[in-house]
Amino acid sequence: MVSHPPNHEHFDNQMVKMEVNLDDISGEWLGYVMDLLFEAGANDVFYTPIYMKKNRPGILLQLLCSKKKVSRMKEILFKETTTLGLRYFPLTVHRLERSFVKIETEWGPVTIKEGIHEGQIVQRAPEYEDCRQIAEQHGIPLKKVYEQVWKAVQ
C-alpha cells in the first residue's frame, strides 16, 4: 500500500446550500445544468422529485458551494433553468480527515479513499474511476473489480 498525505478533519463554515423548484424542464437540460454547475465549482449537485402547488410534479435542484461561488451559481441557475427565484442558506460542513491509499489488484492499482474521524477510519471506498478503467481495459464486470478491492482492504 502507498499512502498519500491526509487532508485534516475540519469544519468549513464558508459553504452555502442553494435550491430551486423546477417544473417544465427536461431531463436533458437537468443533466446539462448539473455539468455546468460542477464545472463552475459546485461541491455537490442533486435532484429530488417533488410536488408543487396545484399538485404539479417538479424537481428540487439543490447544490452546495463555497460563498465565493454563489454569484456564478445564481447566474447559471437563472440563465439555464426555468426558475423565477432561488433560495440559499449559509451552511457549515464537517469534513472528515481523508487519506488515500493504493492497493494492488490482479488487474492493477486502485486508490482507496479513507474517511478518518478522531483518528479512526470510519469510511473507506474505492475510487470509481480507477475501478471503471480496470473493468473497461480488462473486459470484466465492474462489480468483480469492487469485490476484489473489498477483499484486499479487509
As residue ranges, the low-confidence spans are 1-6
What do we call the CATH topology of the largest domain?
Answer: Alpha-Beta Plaits
Q: Which of globular, elongated, flat, extended, rod-shaped describes the shape?
A: globular
Order of neighbouring strands in the sheet with most strands: 1-6-7-8
What order do the helices and strands follow? EEHEEHEEEEHH
Give the tally of β-strands. Answer: 8
Biggest sheet details = 4 strands, antiparallel
How large is the share of residues in beta strands? 35-45%
Q: How many structural domains?
A: 2
Mean pLDDT: 92
What's the level 1 CATH class of the largest domain?
Alpha Beta
Overall CATH architecture of the largest domain: 2-Layer Sandwich
CATH superfamily heading of the largest domain: Transcriptional regulatory protein pf0864 domain like
Quaternary structure of the protein: single chain
Helix content: 25-40%
End-to-end C-alpha gap: 13 Å
Find the structural class using helix and strand composition.
alpha+beta
How does this model look, in words?
Mean pLDDT is 92; it is low at 1-6. The strands form two sheets. This protein has a four-stranded antiparallel beta sheet. A four-stranded antiparallel beta sheet has the order 3-4-2-5, covered by helices on one side. The chain contains four helices and eight strands, in the order ββαββαββββαα. β6 and β7 form a beta hairpin. 10% of the residues are buried. It is of the alpha+beta class and 154 residues long. The protein folds into two domains: 12-93, Transcriptional regulatory protein pf0864 domain like (Alpha-Beta Plaits, 2-Layer Sandwich), CATH 3.30.70; 96-153, no CATH class. Helices cover 31% and strands 44% of the residues.
